[in-house]
Amino acid sequence: MFGLDSSDMVFRIPALLAALTVHEYAHARVADYLGDPTPARAERLTLNPIAHLDPVGLIMLWLFQFGWAKPVPINPYCFRNGRNGIIMVSFAGPASNILLALFSALALGIMAKFNVNSYAVEQVLWLLYSYNIMFAIFNLLPFPPLDGSKIVEVLLPARAAELYERMAPYAPFLLVGLIYLGVISAITYPLQRFLSLIIHSIVGVLL
Fold first, then answer.
1. pLDDT of 93-130, one tens digit each?
2. Active site residue 24
3. Among the options 24, 43, 153, 162, which is catalytic?
4. Could you write out the three-class secondary structure of the chain?
């Protein structure tokens, strides 16, 4: 879903790295704010993409058009507000992608309004917008180990959460299968369109 097309890689790589890095940094920053020193000890409180890249995830991205970054280690027992902290940390990543998509759309709108022409900048900003829209929606899906699964697990009753947690080892295989069958796209595409419509509306008001 988030693969690298060699035809325009020079534009895709910076956009993809920015989306992945901001997403993971947001997890780390919110966990640190809530009192968990684990991300800082793991040197994840940084916007340096190298700190957040996963070699296997990158290879999968290159070969199969589906990859991932290195998850930020956290210790929920350190959070000042317990279970609510898990929700806040989990949502921080997708929320940061939404904000970055909004920034990209605003930048594109400003360029258009003032007739600033730069093919390279426009391509990077458009890809940055697209990747962040996709990341925000995709990561909120309730499939372990995506962020949405952690939010759902906290909200479920104890017995249901235990059963839900048991599916975690099998969920990634199910998720990949649903991706290649087109089921995930059928779910995420309307949500991406809806989020994109909201962002365009905000940009329209601001500009």
1. 999 999 999 999 999 999 999 999 999 999 999 999 99
2. yes
3. 24
4. CCCCCHHHHHHHHHHHHHHHHHHHHHHHHHHHHCCCCHHHHCCCCCCCHHHHECHHHHHHHHHHCCCCECCCCCCHHHCCCCHHHHHHHHHHHHHHHHHHHHHHHHHHHHHHHCCCCCHHHHHHHHHHHHHHHHHHHHHCCCCCCCHHHHHHHHHCCHHHHHHHHHCCCCHHHHHHHHHHHCHHHHHHHHHHHHHHHHHHHHHHHHC
